[in-house]
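tool=predict chain=A
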Amino acid sequence: MTIVAYLVTSHTGPEQVLRLVRTIRTLSPDAPVLVHHDGVREPLAPAALERIGGVHRVPDAPVEWGRGSQLAMQLRCLAHAVERVGFDWLTTISGQDYPARPLEAVERDLAATPFDGFVEGHRVDPPPWTRGPVDEFARRYFLHWRGIREPGRLGRRAIVAARPLLAVRDLPSGVLLGHRARRTPFTAAMPCRRGSDWLTLRRPAAEAVVRAVRDRPGLVAHFARTVLPTEALPHTVLHADPAFTLSGDVRRHTRWEPGTAHPAVLGLADLDAVLASRTDFARKFDQRLDPAALAALDRALGV
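tool=predict ok
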């Protein structure tokens, strides 16, 4: 029997996280479930998870979205799963994901697939040494970033004038200053890759990412100083390994509004598209905004 483990990482909506875990437990009673919840703003009571049963709590720590602490969380969760949980497949989801079809069908498909992982691998080339426009992903992964005070209008103008050596960007946590990395760990055999950080990995692929922390400290150190490193380190490691056959299908349903950086919140009006997608999970839902959406999805799934 193929064992699929589900790793939930979250930082908001603890009641919705509990609902998700209960639904996974209902749809796949024997599946290992792991939860990492950054409860700085909205705590998740450990006793609530214990009452569900069979849930592995990954030791949590505060996470700053898009920075090195998010990468540390991702790698810590993968290591916890590899070292402490028996599984054949590991799928990572957020607390705002929800199954888009019965997990029995998901697990049956994973048992039969020829792939070792479902992870995107779009190549990222280094930015040019010019003052012209720079690709967003090249800016993320070929510059090193650190937090600074708000530089003000004149400071921002000076940073812009220093392109391509310097750059500035705004994150929810504050302002970052980026400078072109003197050297990177990327090679012809291991170019920089990127994609969604919601992964579905066969155990050997998950082990390869964990092993990279030990065997490639320079790679981890480089990505820890980039922006959104969780969307590049596993992809770079796995697509460089000839032992793996990978699919770029992320097996997730999302809806994007034009010009936005984040997927739209799905509601009741999206239910038909979710069910027709034949993906494993859909995101993102917010039961505080549209409680009817998850209730209707529960009925469709037979929960």
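The two ends are 23 Å apart (CA to CA). The chain has a mean pLDDT of 95.
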